[in-house]
Amino acid sequence: MQHTLDQIVSAARAEFAAAAPLPSRAEFEAAKARYVGPNGQLTAQMKKMGTVPKEERPALGKLINQTKVEVQALLDAALARIEAAELRASLGPPIDPTLPSPDLGRGAFHPLTAVREELSRILRKVGFTVADGPEVETEYYCFDALNTPADHPARDTQDTFYLPPAARFANVAKKSPQEQYLLRTHTSSVQIRTMLKGQPPIRIVSPGRVYRRDTTDATHSANFQQLECLYVDKGVTVRDLKALLDYLFESLLGKDTKTRFRPHYFSYTEPSFEVDLSARHLPKVNKEWIEIGGCGMVDPTVFADVGYDPEVWSGYAFGMGIERIAMLLYGIDDIRYFYQNDLRFLSQFA
Amino acid sequence: MKISLNWLKDYIALEASTEEISRAITFLGFEVEAVLQTGLPPLENVVVGHILTREKHPNADKLSVCTVDVGPEHGGVRTIVCGAPNCNAGSRVVAALPGAVLPGDFKIKSSKIRGQVSDGMLCSSAELGLGEDHDGILILSGEPAPPAPGAPANAVLPAGDTVFDVEITPNRPDCQSHLGLARELAAWFKLPLNYPQVTFRGPAEGAPERRDLLASVQVDTPVECPLYSAHVISGVKVGPSPDWLQARLSAVGLRPINNIVDVTNYVLLEYGQPLHAFDAARIAGQQLRIRHAHAGELLTTLDGKARELEPPTLVIADAEKPLAVAGIMGGETSGVSAETTDIVLECAVFKRQSIRRTSRRLGLSSDSSYRYERGVDPHTSIEAAQRAVDLILATAGGAGQEGQGGGAVVGPVYQIGGEAPWQREVVVTHDYICEKLGFDIPSADMRAAFESLELRITREEPTESRGPAWTLAIPSWRQDLDRPIDLVEEVLRVYGTEKIPAGRVVSPGLLAEDAPAVVFNRRATEFLVGHDFQECANYTLRSGKELSTWVSQTAAAELALANPFVADQSHLRPTLILGLLDTLHLNQSRGTAVQRLCEVGRVFVESNGQNYECASAAFIIAEDGARRWLKREPADFYTTKSLVAALAEMAGIDFARQPLQLAAGGELGWQEGHAATAGDLGKQGWAAQLGLLDLALVKSLGIEGQVYGGSFSIVPEKLAAAAQARRRFAPFSLYPTTQRDLALVVPAELPAETVRKQLQKAARAAAGTRFAVEAVSLFDVYRGPGLGEAEKSLAFSLVFRAEDRTLTDEEVNAAFQRLQDELLQGSGYRLRS
């Protein structure tokens, strides 16, 4: 019997050897039945136990059991290999990793959004929060509250878009019924709204679209984006304003960036300055200064108009065009690209 | 305005270089737009040449070989090769001889040109820095006498000048003049300012008063004309101005006309005070009257245009007719001509608003109106008039100049109106200025700055802190200085803004957050970009024609601008989709494959006769036109639904609970039966549209393939409320769920959500308080064989769970049975077997 059992094991070994061809699942099931099935060889040996003398049974039983464990192990290993092969087969042939993905290209921010968010992020770090206001404004918020005289050319219908007197904007409140709606010419109107709504100290940045009645060309666009900062607190100084602009442009353009102030005139700041920029690593501004925005200390008249005591509160304001910054940063020479949305343009800034 | 350096030097001894002066003007607060060189700079070895002969160059078609007499002291006759077509024999020209250096560092030397020696160069005006004319060499005029060969070019050509084109800010009308800017530069360079010496202070004693030339002046409108003065000057000799005067005017771009007109222009540019000279003989009735024009009155202005006037246009009239549009332009016939012998010199102050209104209405502006619009100093007007009288007597006074009789005589002089003497004082302290600046400037520097700007210190008093308090007398031409803060700027300007020291940003923490609309914009953009959309930026202003494809005529009318600039940008955009379709079309037509585009921005929506400015996010999904080796599932309505739902949820709208309406035929822009809407802007403050864009619209735009889209708009105020909502934790059960499926046969046209809600309601009723119905979700929709034509089957999965135990099959089965009984009873639905 020992001999028969040895034969069974070696037959099974031969049949399921790793080197042997892998049987199909059906072949395997048939083979399995041949060994351990009800009519299998091993089962047949076990059935012979009854014919064996009583005293030999324990030894024989042990022997059969060993054989059974061994055969079962071979079967299990074979089954595992068959299952693995089946899984592999279910995946089909291997992929070609060099084929292009048929999925969509990635989305990307518009360069103006990217620049706007970059500037907002830099300013948020030093305590500015981003404020918002309507693009359809009234004469009060856009001009009167900013100390713009009634006969100022900026208010003229030649320069500013107006809505007809009958237009009604349910969610843009007029200060007085005689006022006309217009498209804001600067985001300074947001400063007024913010000051009227809250109490100082205030530290806001207001980015957004503004509108000028102007011929569209390489540097002018009927709508463009501005970004303005307003800081109102006690004891705010010209030096603070300069420090903010140095910080802002060094953060944006690098350590070798310089700003300078030129005295200027704006009706809502006193003193007022234009800001020039130079950055060694940027083409166009590496040799000469270029004008980048306007700024100044909030005029006491503006404070008085929004009900802040000019004796107590002081502040600065700064504004610039986002397109201009983006053009400088990326070396773009025509503002119209921003609003044309040719993907060959947009995708360059992804 | 154009400022001549030579002219400035009349008032200050400027030694600084052009660059330094440019810098000074810039840091005083005026933009230098250009620096121009006019006239001939001093040049050596550049002389008058006389072309004796001209022959064709033997080796070059376009060159000539000339012999040129350049005078005995320069070697007599020289051979010079010239390429210009006009180097004709006999012409007097400018020859640059070897050793000369022309503007632009162009060195002249003797050379061989195509084998022919050329001993110098004949110059064009461009080469001499005199202009842009490159067409040929400069031919010198033979009038009055041909210039002698060998004479230095500087002796025969206008002298050089440097002209700064300066933009003057509107707060500084005093700087619309050479004197004004000289005053600023004197402060900057710390140089004394020399005012012009005015000698005429009134008619000479006993001089004959020619009231026969002008008998009266009457101002009907003293508010609009607070000052009017008229100097009668008889016996003038009209003729060309002296060279110095012509050179001054030419340098700043004015054409010399005659000595009288040139003087008025000169004083305008010197003092900033407009002046006008009438021919006294042309004043009917010998009277001037400043009044409003009568409707329909005609006047031909100096520019040759006949103008019909109407009130309240201010005019200077005689007894019969208007002679001039006040402050803007004189009339063609009443001006000074060659025959004029007696003049009336007008010097007046007109109100800014009146001039501006008229200038706009007539579409007519002039150097004069430009200054009146910005404001002239009424306290220096008479001084300017007297300066002009001086200059007229000097240049057009005839034989007996300087009042020695026989020449021009002044008188009478009329003056109507005039301001009370100017007086304004402002008190400012040293400490206040330092406090506003954030750094210290020594009080001596401040004092010097005030004095250099002619802000006279009338009092200086010590204060309790470091520096003194000054009382400053503000000069009449600085009416922009009214408060201590205004003086901070004056000190800083003269001190130099480049000296503002560096600082650190100090940032106290404030209780504030980004505005809700800003947060929504940012999140929506990030979401869409994260879902592979390319963000776009389209113009806010669209054409009326385009709007009519999207909103009703009434709504389009509400969104029209009162004064559009161009026809295709006449309306506010009611949606971002139209711009995105533009973008899609542009890229398709340029051969760029585009699928997903988005934009986030403001839209303007009409609802029940009211407009709303809304924050909006929108996207479009075009058909994938590209051939691909592996096809992906195309987008459909439900793609847009999931995206719009996400946008709405960012805005705090629980989109899943909002009813969606199938787009009917009236929903412009969207395909009937394949798109949906939700919300109501007027009632709920938000609205959404999603699905397939109108096929005909898309096709009419030239876009290939179908386009899906979605748009979500909300009034910003509603976002504010959403931002405040803080989530609360809800505890959840740790026990397993039990699930049952149910397929219902229902009428085909019934919205699935209606059935789902009924089912959910029935399930909740059946479960009662014993356990929860966690979800009732649809997982299959079937129409076809086995069902009636007008039927569909909806299969739902119901998920149950108890808070405190594992549910038993029995209790779930019982509830499941109850809900079926409940639902099927009376609903007309049946179970799908």
From TrEMBL, chain A:
Binds 2 magnesium ions per tetramer. It holds the Pfam family tRNA-synt_2d. GO terms for biological process: phenylalanyl-tRNA aminoacylation. Its main location: cytoplasm. The keyword ATP-binding applies. One of its GO terms (cellular component) is cytoplasm. Residues 113-348 form the Aminoacyl-transfer RNA synthetases class-II family profile domain. The keyword Nucleotide-binding applies. SUPFAM superfamilies: Class II aaRS and biotin synthetases, tRNA-binding arm. Keywords: Aminoacyl-tRNA synthetase, ATP-binding, Cytoplasm, Ligase, Magnesium, Metal-binding, Nucleotide-binding, Protein biosynthesis. Its cofactor is Mg(2+). One of its GO terms (molecular function) is tRNA binding. It is an enzyme of class 6 (ligase). It catalyses: tRNA(Phe) + L-phenylalanine + ATP = L-phenylalanyl-tRNA(Phe) + AMP + diphosphate + H(+). Mg(2+) binds at residue 270. Tetramer of two alpha and two beta subunits. This is Phenylalanine--tRNA ligase alpha subunit. It comes from Cephaloticoccus primus.
From TrEMBL, chain B:
It catalyses: tRNA(Phe) + L-phenylalanine + ATP = L-phenylalanyl-tRNA(Phe) + AMP + diphosphate + H(+). It is found in: Cytoplasm. Residues 40-154 form the TRNA-binding domain. Binds 2 magnesium ions per tetramer. CDD domains: tRNA_bind_bactPheRS. It comes from the Bacteria. One of its GO terms (biological process) is phenylalanyl-tRNA aminoacylation. Keywords: Aminoacyl-tRNA synthetase, ATP-binding, Cytoplasm, Ligase, Magnesium, Metal-binding, Nucleotide-binding, Protein biosynthesis, RNA-binding, tRNA-binding. Pfam families: B3_4 (PF03483), B5 (PF03484), FDX-ACB (PF03147), tRNA_bind (PF01588), tRNA_synthFbeta (PF17759). SUPFAM superfamilies: Anticodon-binding domain of PheRS, Class II aaRS and biotin synthetases, Nucleic acid-binding proteins, PheT/TilS domain, Putative DNA-binding domain. Its EC number is 6.1.1.20. Mg(2+) binds at residues 480, 486, 489-490. GO terms for cellular component: phenylalanine-tRNA ligase complex. Its cofactor is Mg(2+). Residues 733-832 form the FDX-ACB domain. GO terms for molecular function: ATP binding; magnesium ion binding; phenylalanine-tRNA ligase activity; tRNA binding. InterPro entries: aa-tRNA-synth_II/BPL/LPL, B3/B4_tRNA-bd, DNA-bd_dom_put_sf, Fdx_antiC-bd, Fdx_antiC-bd_sf, NA-bd_OB-fold, Phe-tRNA-ligase_IIc_bsu, Phe-tRNA-ligase_IIc_bsu_bact. Residues 421-502 form the B5 domain. HAMAP family: Phe_tRNA_synth_beta1. Belongs to the phenylalanyl-tRNA synthetase beta subunit family. Type 1 subfamily. Tetramer of two alpha and two beta subunits. PANTHER family: PHENYLALANINE--TRNA LIGASE BETA SUBUNIT, PHENYLALANYL-TRNA SYNTHETASE BETA CHAIN AND LEUCINE-RICH REPEAT-CONTAINING PROTEIN 47. This is Phenylalanine--tRNA ligase beta subunit. The gene is pheT.
